[in-house]
Amino acid sequence: MARERETYKKFAYWLHESSLGQLSDALAAKGIKIREAKGIVCTPLDPINKISVVSPGVWSETCKRPGSWYRASDKKNLYLVVSSFELSDFEDRLCSIITESDFIPDHLASLEEKLALVSDTVYQALAPGQWSEVDEVEKRLYIRWAKRLGSDLDDYELLFLTQSANHANFVSPQIYLENEKGIIPYSIDCSAHLCSCCLEIFQVIGEKFKEKLVAPCPGATIFARLKRNRYLLVTKPASKSRGG
């Protein structure tokens, strides 16, 4: 199993607005201000951001289409707080502990495996309709981002197949590791070909797994300065988290 790297660590929490106010007041008393994410969900993952909040509306801004997964989930209308330190009074709201991993996959998904993943009936039932409603401007943007991260792919349909199959692998895993904690699904392709890794990192997709290995998507590498192809180990706390 991949070892975590202690140089990077984040804690993610889902809170109701009232609890966010309590947290803000408690931190303000210590001289700590919560930074607000603007337009991009993944910016709180930037190593320089000590503690940030993602308001519900941010999921409908830059990444509005991928944000449809959030809006269709039980996290809808909750506030996401991402901190570089533990929030001791909110342990029951903790959803993810995020660290860098030294994991390097020895297997990435083939075309046949990607087609099988998106054909899974559980995935098809969960995928919001808006997820597949991609306009031409967005298609060009994702191709441009993929090339920026080193891909030579020009076919958006193949790119979208990979992005969808990757999410499907965290719904009904077909490509994974196993250890004493169970199945550990991991991202099925390189960072250049992925989308909305935030959904796995913050437990919108794949919440049932105790551990996941998630490669950052282009947005997370560009806007949160995460290292491309450097997998993150996402650990779910032992106690069940609940937004509150």
Question: What is this structure, in a nutshell?
Answer:
This protein has 244 residues and is of the alpha+beta class.
**Helix fraction?**
25-40%
Principal-axes geometry comes out as globular
Distance between the termini: 33 Å
Count the domains: 1
Question: How do the helices and strands follow one another from N- to C-terminus?
Answer: EHEEHEEHHHHEEHEHE
Rg result: 17 Å
Helix/strand/pairing category: alpha+beta
Q: If you average the pLDDT, what whole number results?
A: 94
Topology:
Elements: E1 4-15, H1 17-28, E2 35-36, E3 51-54, H2 68-71, E4 79-83, E5 94-101, H3 111-118, H4 121-126, H5 136-148, H6 156-169, E6 176-179, E7 182-185, H7 198-201, E8 211-214, H8 218-223, E9 232-235
Parallel strand pairs: 2-3
Antiparallel strand pairs: 1-4, 1-5, 3-4, 5-9, 6-7, 8-9
Helix pairs in contact: 3-6
Q: What does the model show?
A:
The protein is α+β, with helices and mostly antiparallel strands and 244 residues long. The chain has one domain (1-244). The protein contains eight helices and nine strands. It is globular. The mean pLDDT is 94.
List keywords for this structure.
seven-stranded mixed sheet; two-stranded antiparallel ribbon; alpha+beta; single chain
